[in-house]
Amino acid sequence: MSFLLRFRREARVSGPLAQQLAAGIRAPDYSVARRREALAGWLMAGPAIGLILAFTAAPLAFAAYMSLRDVNVLRLPGEFVGLENFFRLPSDRLFVRSVFNSLYYAALLVPANTMLGLGLAVLLNRPLPGLRVLRTVFLLPIMVSGVVAATVWRLLLNTDAGVVNAALSALGLARQPLLQSPAQALPLLAVMTTWMTVGGSIIIFLAGLQSIPQELYDAAAVDGATGARAFFSITLPLLQRTTAFVIILTTIVALRLFDVVYIMTQGGPQRATSVLAYYSYQLVFLHQRLGYGSALGIALLLIILVITLVQLRLARGGADY
Known about the structure:
The chain contains 15 helices and 2 strands. By secondary structure, the chain is mainly alpha-helical. It has 2 domains: about 1-65, no CATH class; about 85-315, MetI-like fold (Orthogonal Bundle). The radius of gyration is 29 Å and the shape is globular. The mean pLDDT is about 85.
């Protein structure tokens, strides 16, 4: 309309012609298009939202409800006990042991996965001969099912007939108890999980590395900053948020550990590999203590949430690309 008024003023158009022009120019109506666009978005997101509600939100709500009751398969629906199941957790020796095992496992897995993933990503980001083959080799384990990988590693680490002890014997070294040793079992599970999950960290770090402008390295090279100095002065600072994301994701994976323990050790030996998720499974499915096991599951969720929030808080700030 302002254009039309200016047109009238400059071209000195007046009378019926100017009125007809003013009536004929209208702002387009975007309301219908926006409603159609929003409807199309909801229709496309609907199946995913339905799956999330059916397989995540609903089970979580049911577990929260069961955690407030004293329930087992012989006494349904059970008695409402409020927060009593949660108050009993700190005095449960097996729960405390499971918390320690979970945190110890995370302390082993997170640094190994992060540093190895970053190092391999830097290596694979260079123009090396056979680069596609190398990337395939390093990324292949993430496509293997956790159950299949755990079964294969259980055979490799078998104390009596495993490949690892056979190789140690061939080298003249002492055979090891491996998964039968309370001191060795959990670190070996961390090694296995690092092998299985490091490919995901490589992909994330590669995306971060390839987003850093080459001009920064060229400018640094003019000042004599190459190699390790360029890595610590340019690459690491600009990968701060990427590194934080990898650490948070790996921590969540570590604290949710279940399938590897279930297949390889069943929580043994001497409960050395009994982590929170596996102990919750034992309570619910083996001992039929649905209420207490659900409370432990909710406690695990809260532990993951608190640790993630702390990590997000610590990871604030810094430059990234």
